[in-house]
Amino acid sequence: MPKSNNDYDDIFKTLKYNHKRLFISLINKAFNKSYPLNIVPTILPTDSYIENPDTDKIEERESDLLMSICGDTYLIECQSYEDGTMAIRIAEYAFLSARNSAVWENGRVILNMPAYVVVYIKSSEHTPLYTEITLKFPNGESVNYDCKNILLKDISKEDMISDRLFPYIPFYITRYENEICNKGNIDSALSDLLYFRTELTKLYQNNELSPEELLDIMNYINRIIKHIADGNEYEERMVSIMGGTVEETPSQKLKRLEDEKNILSLFSNGADFELIRKSFSEKIISNERLLELQKLATQK
User: Fold this and answer.
1) Which one, of 52, 48, 84, lies nearest residue 64 by Cα?
2) 95-122 per-position pLDDT tens digit
3) Does 1 fall in a domain?
4) What is the pTM of this model?
5) Which of 73, 171, 214, 233 is at a distance of 20 to 30 A from 186, taking alpha carbons?
6) What domain of life does the native source organism fall in (predicted)?
């Protein structure tokens, strides 16, 4: 039985409700904008109905992200694969958005269509590079409403960090799905996970990420790992790289992150290793992690 991709949809939609500010840098990059990262965007409703071609049933659909920033509206769809309905779904969501924000005059209505983009978490040679919508009118005129798709495999881990593309990070590991599922060589995957842990921790230490944001991003990374590994021998090894274990609860992880922030501050202020080692037991933090934090402090 094929795996459900609900985990991918759920993570993207949960991020938009719990951490909507993290999408500002994503929108800046995707649409060549420069909105300040401290503004508060607005999430807009996008419930819709569409016929599923596989079942011939009418299903309720909700777009992944419809957001308003400084009066501009953006529609983002995060797709795990091309299912043949993306263009019509975009059209429906876009017209719903335009209808909700329509400007009515005497016998006239102005529909402001949102800018949109489709992000493909996984892609192949069959993944379309563009999403194309053409509106044809009885007088022979037509309007193209297109976008260039974003393929996640083309975005490096370094760019995800430098451009602050936080909503993409949980899905980065999907590029190693074949190696993880078929128990191949995962050295590169482990190295990339370690890179994200280190860089996300630095951003947290520099107050660019809140404890809750860091915790959720790491939890979402682990959720994708579990989705892909499906309990195989690689799962616990990969999950542990985010600094926790399979059994670690969110509250325990949040406490550990606070301890690590305090330890990094102590190192930055000149405290030596042995003094900190005596202050924090190995149950709280391992020697290996303590050495990593000491190295981070010297790099700042």
Assistant:
1) 48
2) 988 988 889 888 899 999 999 999 999 9
3) no
4) 0.77
5) 214
6) Bacteria
